[in-house]
Amino acid sequence: MKNRMNTKFLVTTAVFIAIALVLRSFSILIAAGGILTMRISFSAIFYVMPGLLFGPLYGGIAGGLVDILGYMIAPMGAYIPLLTITNIIAGFLPAVLWKRIKNTDERKIANSYNVFFIILFSIGFINFAVTQFMPQSALAKSLTSLGPKSKYLSLGFMIIGAIAIMLFFINILIKKNSGKAQDFVNSNYFKLVISLGLSGILVSTANTFILMIFTPALMSKGFVFLWAPRIAQALVMTIISSYIICILLYSYELFEGRITKKA
Known about the structure:
Layout: H1 2-24, E1 28-32, E2 35-40, H2 44-54, H3 56-73, H4 81-101, H5 106-133, H6 138-144, H7 155-175, H8 180-214, H9 216-219, H10 223-255
Antiparallel strand pairs: 1-2
Helix pairs in contact: 1-2, 1-3, 2-3, 2-4, 3-4, 4-8, 5-6, 5-7, 5-8, 7-10, 8-10
């Protein structure tokens, strides 16, 4: 029985890896100095899924294989092994966090979600206000030194925070008249945002350091110059991906017969 389950997990993981590789080929790529600095894609959803379903080990394996096979299929710039390691972490860590918080009280998770995005919005608002009304301050000078990318730390954070809080209230409004699918999404969405969001911030930060080490041209720009847009992208993708993953998790549970449709 155990061997059958392991085979099933491996086959399902292989399917998710294949889907991730297909989606990876449709990525929006942003390069600097001949090195890929940002990849905008939904492929991460499918190498995170095995970890959420079967355990962190499967997520780590999927993340590593997607990075290696993806580079072999469509190489861009020099291969950096450290980025494969962070991609393994990107598949492994969300599953670890998910395992720890998936049974946590929903209200506590929702409160943590709101606090994080309110703080994020506030940071963006403060940065915006300082650059507009206190241009001679040290903070304003630091932000303006980033050029147009300073907007990621002001308007970008404000927009992300506002969208996240708006989604929270939308969930409250539709929760009263929802079916099992929406109930499943409501009870797991905020937990996934935290699991994916924390992982995304850590991995994006680590990748930024790695890219700066291997791309001397970026070193002169400064850490925040590269980090700010990557974090903004990671947070936006987390908000969107968490909904998609909720739907996929529900579909899998339904397929496995762990959830029954309403008559």
